[in-house]
Amino acid sequence: MMKKNLSRMLTLLMVLVVQLSIAQEISITGTVVDEDGLPLPGVNVIEEGTSNGVQTDFDGNYSIKVSENATLTFSYVGFATQNIKVGIKSTIDVTMEVDAAALEEVVVTGYGRKKTVKETSAASVVTAKAIEDRPIASVNDMLKGNSTGVVVAGGNGQPGAKSSVQIRGISSLNAGTSPLYVIDGVPVISGDYTRNSTSADVLSNINNNDIESISILKDASATALYGARAANGAILITTKQGKSGAPKFNLSLETGFNEKAVDGPSTLNSSQWAEIVNEGLVNSMGGAYDNYVQEELNPNNINSDWANAVERGSAMQQQANFSVTGGTDRLKYYTSIGYFDQESIIKNSFFNRTSGRVKIDYELSDKITIGQNISASFSNMKTLANGGGFSNPMLAKYFARPSDPIYNENGSFYIGDNPDNPRLSNNLFNVPMLLENNFSKAKTLKLQSITDFSYEITDHLTYTSRLSLDNTVIEEDEYQNPRHGDGFSVNGRAYAYDTRVFNYVFQNTLSYDFTLEENHNFNILLVQEAQKNQYRDVSAASEGFGKEGFSTVSVGSNNLEALGERQQYTNAAYLINLTYDYDSKYFFDASYRREGNSNFAKNNKWGDFYSVSLAWDIAKEEFLRNSSLSQLKIRTSYGEVGNASIGSTSSLAYFNFGGQYNGRIPLYVGGVANPDLTWEKNKPFNVGVDFGFLNNRITGTFDYFVKKTEDLLYAIPLSLTSGANIELEDGTTEVSQFTNAGSLENRGFEASIGAQVFDNDFKWNTRLNLSYVQNELLDLVENDVITGTKILREGESINTYFIRKWAGVDPANGNPLWYVNGKGGETTSDYNKAERAVQGNSLPNYTGGFNNSFSYKGISLQSLFTFALDYKVYDSWATYLQSGGVYDLNYPGYASNLDRWQEPGDIAKNPRTVYNTNNQNNATSTRYLYDGDFIRLSNLQIGYDLARVLNNDLFNSFMVYVRGTNIYTHKFDDDLDWDPETRSSGIINLDLPALKSYTMGVKLSF
After folding, report:
1. What was the pLDDT predicted at 103?
2. pLDDT top residue among 39 and 868
3. Contact 981, 866 (CB under 8 A)
């Protein structure tokens, strides 16, 4: 009976709860405005999971009855959909933000102006959603796969390292090839200014969570506004700003660990190494050496794992960000603080950053607005040597013998048995010891202040003045201990470097908007701009330290150097820009810029540059108004932009002091003047089409471009007979002279297509980006310039490999083979009888990315695949590490050496192993050249918004998520063990490995 009554009571209780939940409805009223605070009529407001819904009226107001604790969805074409939990609220005010994923996305095109993208220009936008909280230090690496026409080449896995960025190809030989970086309308300092660190990037001091959007300007219509500095394109970074309304707080926390994105070549253990070495010695000198390694080099059967000794196994990754935004009708503010910390997979390598930003906009009156944007960041990084440095941990992995112990029996580091020359048995260093006792570090303080003043002279005429002060200070210190390594012979050595880069920009603009006969819309922009960049550095070094651990330069007993340098350049410009559209259907844009730069001699300081562009949105014609087309816009542009990035002394005659001659400091020719040197001229042509179907559910863009560079700035080395070279006691100093020497061209296409596949409870957005760029040297004052593995030849790419072609291993006798003509057909085992030939280039012809975003009732998943195709990478160290017996005795090398010819009929990767052979099997050839083609899962995030289930009114969003970065890489060349994403030169240089990250985090909005 008791059970029966209890069952009835529970049933009645459940019915009562259901009835109450049905009965409890509340009335919600509120307003909806856009980013500028203007009423936004027509917004759809609907209670999730029901048919209850309304549209806002013409004042942006709405009123709706919903269930208690309901979630309202606000949606409108062109604006980001918002989900807001009602809770016990009776009033909700919503600010709708532009959806940058929509076709008519908003892009900052120059000097703070906002347009709908592709009115006439080729530009791309990367939104905050695509980059926020990603565990990557540099903003450059965020662009991979997120924009067409952009190639980001890293090559160094050092956290905070510099990445090279090319927009629509490399457009110069010796002048700068990097794009211009503009933050909130002002050009800023970018690049690597460290002098002792392996690699660093000033842009790594920017907190990615402060970024609202990134606009990539690619054609003349977009880049000509910034003149010569944007000859290689422009990347415009817009930081977040305040919005009217109650304060909004955002907090994000993330932690995780790092691994190697690509494992790299495997190493040999002691028995494998002994097998190869013994075989090579026997093949070279007879059977008496069959057990040489065991008897002479490793009688104690030591098996040291040098790879494990220099690697962490897994490394820490963490970040925290907090921001507050809000304001009134007149005052808007945004402030943030952030911390980022990332360890490399290699010991004693890391990067961390602390940053803060305050951004305030205040309307003094209906006509006057002032703004202040102040950012500060401090970063600390430790870097490690790369390439052939004996302290390079990547070198130690493959060069150190496994027969040498890492530690002595007492736990101390083994540094050899000769106290007068403490080295390993093959004369190298114990790198794990150096990782623990040496350091190379850099600290960077970056301060930037942007002050804005805007005066609305009339309803149509606005004057704006902007002053930016950008100061970067870098302190670098290096210490080499006196017990072992490079510092041993001098009883310890220390270096100190201080570098300061100060950049100020002053802009004044007049913008006049007017409309004629309702649909003829005009804007005239006048700009005056002045920029000055000052560079200063000092350095000091000493040696001879009385005690290990002392690392300050002043403590050394012998001062080695005290040097300093100063440089500066100035840039001035005047610009007029006219834009016109008729009924948002026909568009015209033209600009003229008169620009002066101090890098050139007096007669050539000033250049004249221009652009013209047109567009027609056919979909807005009457005969297509009722079609499924939302947009069908045809664009074209052409212009001329200069390039002056050659250094402040390149066109001048000057002298240097340095080195020594007969015990004195000599004065020698440092630069040879060329008063006729003029601007390198970039002439980009672009034609494109933008389309949208089904109310922009499907969108896309296609561009074809030709970017021709004329009057190439090229440094020609001068011969000894010119008198411009002087031979010092420590070598020869070579001097070059800049001249205008030829032309090159980049041509190709860009395509992007995206779709809202599903847009209900289940949402799926997808986008594919694809770019193709073909680089060609059209003419050069001197043809067939061969440098290392590359050649400059008319008709070829500027990064073309010119080497002999490997034909494999002769299965009959194990000899190496090359093709006689460098292409195919007849083979030879005589390296000198094989010809060099073009073997591809290091610039990927195809690049792109594939984005997907899924969501369902609070569950979300985002993925990004990136890829690069049709290019080559060269392993410059394989000549030592895969040498076919030449260097195996001293340098064990790769585990792939085990795949070698041993008897007739063998089909092997490597030739017959012969110690100290002279068959040149390890000489430069395509044996070490690989296809770099790859596809990488660059980002995968799965999250859930807990705010949907929490019974409180505190959080607008409570997202918990897990994320993987660079978690899978597919290489199309099975023989390539290294990471295919290397530097733009394509040369693998024993750099620190790229990182794979696994993180989990939480993001709160309240």
Report:
1. 38
2. 868
3. no
Asked whether the predicted pLDDT for residue 474 surpasses 50, the reply is yes
Distance CA 848, CA 865 (A): 8
Beta strand 439-456 with 368-382: parallel, antiparallel or unpaired?
antiparallel
What span, in angstroms and rounded, lies between the C-alpha atoms of 246 and 325? 8
Where is mean pLDDT largest: 473-487, 643-657, 710-724?
Answer: 473-487
Q: Which residues contact 731 (CB under 8 A, 6 or more apart)?
A: none
Name residues whose C-beta falls within 8 Å of residue 888's C-beta, 6 or more positions apart in sequence: 273, 276, 277, 280, 897, 913, 915
From CA 632, how far away is CA 623, in angstroms rounded?
A: 13
Q: Is 2 exposed, middle or buried (0-12, 13-18, 19+ CB in 10 A)?
A: exposed
Per DSSP bridges, beta strands 91-95 and 25-33 are: parallel
6, containing H or E segment? helix 2-23
Neighbouring residues of 565: CB distance < 8 A, sequence distance ≥ 6: 535, 536, 537
351 pLDDT more than 90 = yes
The reported pLDDT for the residue numbered 96 is 82
pLDDT band at 956 (very low <50, low <70, confident <90, very high): confident
Assign 3-state DSSP to the chain and report helix, strand, coil percentages, each to 5: 15, 50, 40
Residues 771 and 752 sit within 8 Å (Cβ to Cβ): no
- The structure tokens listed for 253 are 């926390």
The answer to whether the CB of 391 falls within 8 A of the CB of 434 is yes
Residue from 402, 439, 400, 440 nearest 423 by CA: 400
Write the Ramachandran bin of 710: left for phi over 0, alpha for psi from -120 to 50, otherwise beta: beta
909 near 900, Cβ under 8 Å?
yes
Q: Which two tokens stand for residue 398?
A: 């493959």
What is the per-residue pLDDT for 100?
44
Taking the C-alpha atoms of residue 83 and residue 60, their distance in angstroms, rounded to an integer, is: 17
Which segment of 87-96, 102-111, 862-871 scores lowest on mean pLDDT? 102-111
In whole angstroms, give the CA distance from residue 397 to residue 311: 10
Q: Does residue 924 sit in helix, strand or coil?
A: coil
Residue 95: predicted pLDDT:
84
**DSSP class of 281:** H
Query: How far from 648 is each of 180, 491, 597, 631, 642, CA to CA, in Å?
Result: 17, 39, 9, 47, 16
What sign does the dihedral 222-228-234-238 (CA atoms) show? negative
pTM of the model: 0.86
921 torsion bin: left (phi>0), alpha (psi -120 to 50), beta (else):
alpha
**Alpha-carbon torsion (984, 988, 993, 996), positive or negative:** positive
Contact 541, 563 (CB under 8 A): no
Taking 50 as the threshold, does the pLDDT of residue 845 lie above it? Answer: yes
